[in-house]
Design a protein that fits this description.
The protein is of the alpha/beta class and 261 residues long. 43% of the residues lie in helices and 15% in strands. The strands form two sheets. The chain has a six-stranded parallel sheet, sandwiched between helices. Helix 4 packs across helix 7 and helix 6 (146-154) crosses helix 8.
Length: 261
């Protein structure tokens, strides 16, 4: 409530905040992402994730991500991993508080195909995206969507619980497969190769570019500046700065030319 402007990624998130009586101005700035085409990477870069985590070429990787907290539905995640031993299930996320040293999320879990990890290192992120069989979101309150957009662009199917925060992003049968119970996810993940909407998901995700994100973000900042009458002085100061910079540049350039002659 103290903020001058609140930025959210999707209209549904704005609706939810309004439902909680947040009266601060809210702007929707949808995420922008890159396209991780395999053609852009060397073979060793593509295989890096498998080498670091000792995975075979034929191992099928299912990825879940978020924060280590009680809302992430780890019981469901673990149960689905238990009944689908043909997959390697990874959870990547930041650990805080009691979750930091929790035995439950140690690397010595009984299920050898279940892996609880810290945040994925940036150096391995692209390799992970190029090796993932599917994204599985077990948290009904999941908010982050950047990885999901990048997965769509890569042709990675998304299986998820319904989450009100991503109502505009995860659309049943178009961008994702949605379920409620463990038996739903067992069936969806077991038959993930039969997913038929990958092209629709790619088309949907193609609208969310970094260029568009930058423009939307700039417009949101301009709203704040105009609201508090900073924008005009900002533009005036910026213009003055460039005039002085250009004047100094040409003056110094003239001195250099004269000296060299």
């Amino acid at each position: 409530k103290e903020a001058k402007l609140v930025l959210v990624s999707w209209p549904s998130q704005k609706t939810i905040l309004r439902h909680f009586s947040i009266k601060t101005p809210i702007e929707v700035v949808t995420p922008g992402s890159k396209d991780y085409s395999r053609a852009k990477y060397w073979d060793f870069e593509i295989k890096a994730f498998r080498k670091v985590y000792w995975l075979k070429e034929e191992d099928k990787i299912i990825v879940n991500y978020g924060k280590y907290d009680y809302s992430s539905s780890f019981d469901m995640f673990e149960n689905v991993a238990r009944i689908l031993p043909q997959y390697e299930f990874f959870f990547f996320g930041g650990r805080e508080g009691m979750f930091k040293n929790s035995v439950r999320f140690s690397k010595n879990v009984k299920n050898q195909s279940l892996h609880y990890e810290d945040n994925i290192p940036l150096e391995l992120y692209h390799s992970l995206m190029l090796n993932t069989k599917a994204i599985f979101i077990s948290d009904p309150y999941h908010v982050d969507s950047l990885v999901l957009i990048e997965a769509m662009k890569q042709g990675i199917p998304i299986v998820s619980r319904k989450t009100p925060f991503l109502f505009d992003c995860l659309i049943e049968g178009k961008t994702a497969l949605l379920g409620k119970e463990e038996k739903d996810f067992y069936s969806l993940l077991k038959n993930i190769d039969q997913t038929s909407f990958k092209e629709e998901a790619k088309e949907f995700a193609s609208n969310f570019t970094i260029e568009r994100y930058g423009k939307d973000l700039l417009e949101a900042y301009k709203l704040v500046l105009k609201e508090y009458k900073w924008y005009e002085s900002f533009k005036r100061d910026q213009t003055h700065f460039y005039k002085i910079r250009n004047k100094n540049f040409f003056t110094n350039r003239k001195k250099i030319v004269n000296t060299s002659s």
